[in-house]
Design a protein that fits this description.
The chain is of the alpha+beta class and 69 residues long. It is built from two helices and four strands, in the order E-E-E-E-H-H. The chain has helices at 50-55, 57-61, and strands at residues 20-21, 28-29, 37-41, 44-48. The strands form two sheets. Strands 1-2 form a two-stranded antiparallel sheet. Strands 3-4 form a two-stranded antiparallel sheet. Strand 3 and strand 4 (44-48) form a beta hairpin. The chain is globular and about 30 Å long.
Length: 69
Amino acid sequence: MTSLSGDSDHGRPTTEPQAFVCARCGTWAEQPLPTWICSVENGVRHYFCDTCARENLRAIEGRLDSAWW
């Protein structure tokens, strides 16, 4: 019998801590902070730190993909 990815001996999936990295500047945090934003572009989730979000607020509100800003 083979086990699926994420299965443990007790039948519960394992959860590893995930670091969140700003897709623009590379700043990271152990959890998404309330001042960070999340954008889904082409089915991929991107996180942006508060500094990058503030600097590009007009582009974000205009719903431009991050490639444009």
